[in-house]
Design goal:
The protein has about 190 residues and is mainly α. It has one domain. It is elongated, with a radius of gyration of 28 Å. The protein is about 55% helix and about 0% strand.
Length: about 190
């Protein structure tokens, strides 16, 4: 078994130290612009490139890579990074890579939920206009993946459909109040 060489560092797609230095410089420019009353400076090309690399690599994880709207997920992740980059505090964290990875991760989850809601709307629309029951047969057919080019319904599981269904209002049961007889404490 070979021992790891301490001189040979594993090359990462985002250099965290360089990314931190770029964020510190940008935050300094941001503070100077706020002090002068000028508009906020845009992030540098290097910082934007780091956002893109983080989002792209995260989208290739097994839990995200098979979605047909992967590009929208990446776009949402980058957009959220740009919106909240000013919240990164180098005094609190020396790891901007993990900070922005978390932002992108949750942007991906929000996009998936949005797409599931849209798929549910399409599903309901088709179900409403399904006079012959073809949708039901089609959804239950084992070979449906072969001739279904639309990924929309693959996105929805039975559990998702159940969760997205409007909740039925529970009828309130009227509690019968038994009238308690009040005893007069002064009666003998």
């Amino acid at each position: 078994m070979t021992e790891p060489n301490p001189d040979k560092k594993l090359k990462q797609y985002v250099d965290n130290d360089k990314f931190l230095k770029a964020m510190v410089v940008w935050k300094k420019q941001l503070r100077e612009a706020e002090d002068c009353g000028e508009p906020n400076p845009p992030v540098t090309d290097y910082i934007a490139e780091c956002f893109l690399k983080i989002a792209e690599h995260l989208s290739y994880r097994p839990n995200f890579m098979n979605y047909p709207f992967r590009e929208e997920m990446v776009g949402d992740g980058i957009e959220n990074c740009l919106l909240y980059a000013h919240n990164f505090n180098p005094r609190k964290s020396k790891n901007p890579f993990s900070y922005f990875t978390q932002i992108i991760y949750y942007a991906f989850l929000r996009r998936i939920e949005k797409e599931k809601k849209q798929a549910y709307i399409k599903y309901n629309y088709m179900k409403m206009h399904d006079e012959d029951g073809l949708l039901t047969k089609w959804m239950k057919d084992k070979d449906y993946e072969e001739y279904n080019e639309d990924y929309t319904f693959k996105l929805l599981s039975d559990q998702d459909i159940e969760n997205l269904e409007p909740k039925k209002k529970k009828s309130k049961k009227k509690k019968s109040k038994k009238k308690k007889s009040k005893k007069n404490l002064f009666e003998d």
